[in-house]
Amino acid sequence: MPFDPTSLVQSWPKPSAPRPIVTFGAGSIVGDAHFPAYKKAGFPVAGLYDPDQAKAEKLAAAWGVKAFRSIEEAASVEGVIFDLATPPVRHAEVLEALPSGAVALIQKPMGGDLADATRILETCRCRELKAAVNFQLRFAPMMLALKDAIAKGWLGEVVDFDAWLALATPWQLWEFLLKAPRVEIAMHSIHYLDLIRQLLGDPKGVHARTLGHPSHAIAQTRTSAILDYGERVRCALSINHDHKFGRKYQACEFRICGTEGAAYLKLGVNLDYPRGEPDILEIYPKGGSDWINVPLEGGWFPDAFVGRMANVQRFAAGEDAELVSSVEDAWNTMALVEAAYQSSAAPATPLAKKPEG
Questions:
Q1: In angstroms, what is the C-alpha Rg of the chain?
Q2: DSSP single-letter state for residue 177
Q3: Distances (CA, A) of 100 to 43, 73, 269
Q4: Domains of the chain as residue ranges with CATH
Q5: Model confidence over 311-323: pLDDT tens digits?
Q6: What is the torsional sign of CA 64, 68, 71, 72?
Q7: What's the pTM value of the predicted model, to 2 decimals?
Q8: In terms of C-beta distances under 8 Å and separation of at least 24 residues, what long-range contacts does 211-219 make, across chains too?
Q9: Would you tell me how many other CB atoms lie within 10 Å of the CB of residue 214?
Q10: Alpha-carbon distance 112 to 91, whole Å?
């Protein structure tokens, strides 16, 4: 049977009766992605809370929702999904305020480091929270289609994964990151590490180096990493957020090669963020003779946020058996992030010295 690009799954089923959403946080990600996604999907928003009351009221007015006056007031709303669009250092505080048994979606990363992630995991277990982490890249139409193509055998066995980014990221949009000790891997490449885990499983280890740039004080904006999957699979990431020399040679792309086919993806939102460019998925299928474009039904922003929330909603209603990127699974992504930072901090193997003579 010839490869049919229109047969690939690109969206997550919607819940039959979506619950209202209470959002914690009023940062740019809420206005740029969360609320546009929920409006597009028809998910009702009950309101939002942010300690910056003026910012909360401005965003709430723009979207016609309520601005709560405190964490306690927001957490007291019954029958809702709690949507934590908070900085990682605030996750635990909000989770501890939620009622036992609540359903929550937690913004990535799952805390500032692995110790925070462990505290969050233990809090969710203790309070019996049905909680997932917002690794929404898994739900982008191009990634759902890629996963489906791999599952259907169109690439054969995946043996190569390359992530290549050379772009200019506007870090100033996220004020809390400007003084954060961990930025690039913890806040950006974590999406790619999580996606790689979904496609390839957990690696044996990681070799990484992450660093800043002489032109600014942000902790890290450039990363090179190799994930160790043994003798059959090669996986490498080359990430540079300081390529500020015009669009011509900028890139944000994945190349995935299998034993019988391959895939190319462009992640358009990161190019000229948040306006972005269209995503691209092309597949060279098993038995094919050329690259085939997969017509995409949406983009990472905001469509992946629709799918991410749809899974949470459906799991809460008993319509989905699996909570994708649950805190139990997301902890493993945080463990990979932690290993990458530990690798970066370790001394490199020195070169041998030439004998004198």
A1: 21
A2: G
A3: 23, 16, 37
A4: 9-137+305-328 (3.40.50.720), 142-296 (3.30.360.10)
A5: 999 999 999 999 9
A6: negative
A7: 0.96
A8: 211/344, 213/242, 215/242, 216/171, 216/242, 217/178, 218/171, 218/177, 218/178, 218/183, 219/180, 219/181, 219/182, 219/183, 219/184
A9: 5
A10: 9
